[in-house]
Fold this protein.
Amino acid sequence: MATDKFISIEGISRHFAAPGGGKTTVFEDVWFSIPKGEFVCMIGHSGCGKTTVLNILSGLDLPDEGAAIVDGKAIEGPSLDRAVIFQSHALLPWRTVLGNVAYAVSSKWRSWSRAKIEEHAKKFIEKVGLKGSELKKPSQLSGGMKQRVGIARALSIEPKILLMDEPFSALDALTRGTLQDEVRRICIETGQTVFMITHDVDEAIYLADKIILMTNGPEALVAEIVENPLPKDRDRNAIHKHPSYYAIRNHLIDFLVTRSKTFKGEIPADYDRRKPPVVRPAGQPQPVPPPQANGRKVA
Amino acid sequence: MPKSNLTARAWIVSLGILLTFGLAWHLAVSGTSQTQAMDPEYAKLMGLSATQGKSAMPGPLDVIAKIWSHLKDPFYDKGPNDKGIGIQLAYSIGRVMLGYALAIVVALPLGFLIGMSPLMSKALDPFIQVLKPVSPLAWMPLALYTIKDSAISSIFVIFICSLWPMLINTAFGVASVRKEWVNVARTLEVGTFRRAFTVILPAAAPTIVTGMRISIGIAWLVIVAAEMLVGGTGIGYFVWNEWNNLSITNVITSILVIGLVGMLLDQALARVARAVHFPE
Ligand SMILES: Nc1ncnc2c1ncn2[C@@H]1O[C@H](COP(=O)(O)OP(=O)(O)OP(=O)(O)O)[C@@H](O)[C@H]1O
Ligand SMILES: [Mg+2]
């Protein structure tokens, strides 16, 4: 199977019944693909249909037209190959931390013994830094800890694809930073293919290999796909010194502020829904000259 | 204010109310009022208490003495009209438990079905709406006619009155399980059957148990009335029989005992409620 189209979204549309009769089209004829091992973020304004795309990828929702194809097979329903990290963490409150993760593990490996399930679950609880909190209930955890359990639960089933819906948006800046680092480390370690929704431009730049830009809904379009010019091994405290950092950041903010609204009105003549344009914001003259002499060389 | 202090003071107030009430009761019934002119038939019926100016109403000490005598021998059996209060209670509790258990067996699966299927929910709604407000005792003649057994008929009446709160709460609890929890199970490819037991049941359990708690309360209210109606055995029959014997002492004793048992049943369900409760 071609690895550059590990996930392939082919002409999907989704309509909902409109309140006053008729139907609203969330998006129509959307195409994009994600290669194996890549970390892809989707950004766009509220209501443009990001969660709808993710639900189709998870199999919780089906497209009205078109197909979402993973590893050569059209998605027909939820699968243990695709783990979801929900925005609202969605932990089962009557289970402990260990119980929540073990529920996922036992769903994947049904013949495993209880001891083996717990051992496996504990490994992932430790990975997200929650060792010692195994027997706590979700109500006894902070928001960041709950989200960690959600991450441990998703990773514990060793999925081929990780789907995340604004996983860090409800967290304070400090917790968010730590969790971003952890998720990034784990994803790189395991070569995970990731699709993540975010509202946060800096989060997208720090985590993503590619960023999919959605225009405003209804009838949203994939305006373009932005390649992240930053090197794969990036340090969150030094990325702003990279010569292309401001180029990509300005490009994304410019899109969110103006072009997400205006794009549909001025679609370029060569725009092809099947192949949204790929852009790679390049390092123009830096707005701030690097103070250190041994700064990274300008590409 | 420290909590223990509050509890202690509440106890003192409760005790004060009890003593005041007991004293007032005692004074009220030990009156020495003149014997009123009364129908001699009635006077004969009421015996000494009426003819000698002593109130027919027993005092608190009489009741305490009576309770003590019942406690000493709760299970005697001297024929159909004279059984110990323990035996009568056991009959009533047994009927309530049977009818209640039957109601659980029917209400839980049916409630699951209604809660999970919008079609069944809509289709069964009119039946539930019409049958729910019917007094359970209104079923009694129909039960007696079809079942032809008074004991089983009162079990049926308990079944009917326990059914509705459990059914409605189960359906509501199941229907309002958070979608995200169900989605968690779906993304983990958990089958319908396992999902019902691992997600929907625990999520709906607090609502279901609330329904069960309401049901046991109603069942205990209804059994007394049902047994008064069909007679034979049970605490309800006991109360009615003692009224016919004009033993007000025994009637008051029964009231206290019925209240006590009702409280214990409620406490038992409260314990279950605490066990299935989860903080979010
Ligand atoms: N079940 C539904 N029924 C009707 N309309 C829906 C339904 N789900 C989503 N929509 C509509 O589809 C559009 C896209 O919703 P979606 O949740 O995908 O947005 P989103 O991009 O994830 O927004 P946000 O950033 O706020 O999470 C919205 O206009 C929403 O009103
Ligand atoms: Mg969303």
